[in-house]
Write a structure and sequence with these properties.
The protein is mainly beta. The chain has two domains: 193 residues, Jelly Rolls, CATH 2.60.120.10; 98 residues, Sandwich (Jelly Rolls), CATH 2.60.120. 10% of the residues lie in helices and 36% in strands. It is built from five helices and 24 strands. The strands form five sheets. A seven-stranded mixed β-sheet has the order 1-22-19-24-18-16-17. Strands 3-2-4-11-6-9-15 form a seven-stranded mixed β-sheet. The longest helix is centred in the middle third of the chain and has 9 residues.
């Protein structure tokens, strides 16, 4: 594969194309400065304006959220796995019907495997623009987002209506629901009762891995982060490894399905028969299936990256006590 062929499978951080109207809370004060990025796969955006950088199916989606300080992503749930790692800034994640069941603060490089079936949200509590990278299970990411009722109600007050077809309509722009399309129904109290409310001390120990702990674990070999034998024991339809300078190897290898490289710190040189490229933090590279390749740090200093590859496992575990 030539470098030109591979260029279409590399998304540079500086070339990410944001969507500022991706979700139902795009006009809601406190959430109206979000930027959503869909890097690999269709994602779960509710807006036709969302740009998809790489549409090749991987068995999972890669996206990102960029937010200024004090900007919040509203409470929602997914039917498949949702995994975040912090690329830039400090973030607070919270969960529960009202967002008060539990919470955790993540620093750069930390990773959070949020169980399916619970409402979750997050906000930038740092002092500068921040970015979190997201991995969503499945090629269709479970068919969209399930919003907490108050999010739908608040959005309507600010002009945005979500149709049952999963599309947004902006009444401030004169848009109405098309004929035959009803508003997305609000969950009933009986339906809401099925969403668990785990406390922080139940979730954090089994769902959060800290960057510096993973760095220590990856001193001789890549650290298994998410997977059957991972630090976070789950099988959500993909596996995540963490690689550092100490555990990187120059031996060529391949996978039987596409894999993704996502640098966290440092510059990484990826080589394959036919070319090479250097990746920086925030870049995303899709490596084709059955392509021999290797990734090693390109410069001195700290270097780390997350590696993602799909599996045949289902969407991931729903939270159970």
């Amino acid at each position: 594969m030539t470098p030109r062929d591979m260029a279409s499978r590399i998304v540079r951080y500086g070339e990410l194309r944001p969507c500022r109207t991706a979700f139902i809370d795009a006009h809601t004060p406190g959430s109206d400065q979000k930027e959503n990025f869909t890097i690999i796969g269709g994602g779960v955006s509710e807006s036709p304006d969302q740009h998809v950088h790489i549409q090749i199916p991987h068995g999972f989606n890669i996206g990102a959220a960029g937010q200024p300080p004090n900007c919040r992503n509203s409470l929602h749930s997914h039917r498949t796995a949702e995994v975040f790692f912090v690329l830039k800034g400090r973030w607070r994640f919270f969960w529960g019907r009202r967002g008060d069941a539990g919470g955790v603060v993540l620093e750069e490089g930390d990773i959070f495997n949020i169980p399916t079936g619970i409402f979750r949200g997050f906000e930038n509590i740092g002092t500068d623009y921040g970015m979190v990278m997201a991995i969503l299970g499945g090629d269709d990411a479970g068919g969209g987002v399930i919003w907490a009722p108050q999010v739908i109600e608040d959005a309507r007050e600010h002009g945005l209506v979500l149709g049952e077809n999963g599309r947004l309509y902006d009444t401030k722009l004169g848009q109405d629901l098309p004929d035959g399309v009803a508003p997305m129904p609000v969950l009933s109290e009986a339906e809401l009762a099925a969403f668990p409310e785990p406390e922080a001390d139940e979730v954090v120990p089994v769902c959060v891995a800290r960057y510096w702990d993973l760095t220590a674990l990856a001193d001789k070999a890549p650290a298994k982060v998410i997977g059957e034998h991972g630090r976070l024991r789950d099988r959500p339809g993909f596996e995540v490894d963490f690689i550092t300078r100490a555990s990187a190897g120059a031996t060529m290898h391949s996978h039987d399905r596409p894999s993704v490289l996502m640098p966290v710190r440092g510059h990484w040189r990826v080589t394959w028969e036919g070319g090479s490229v250097t990746l920086a933090p925030g870049d995303t590279m899709s490596v084709p299936e059955n392509l021999d390749h290797a990734a090693v740090p390109a410069m001195t200093g700290e270097a780390s990256l997350y590696h993602v590859v799909g599996t045949d496992d289902p969407a991931g575990k729903t939270w159970t006590r």
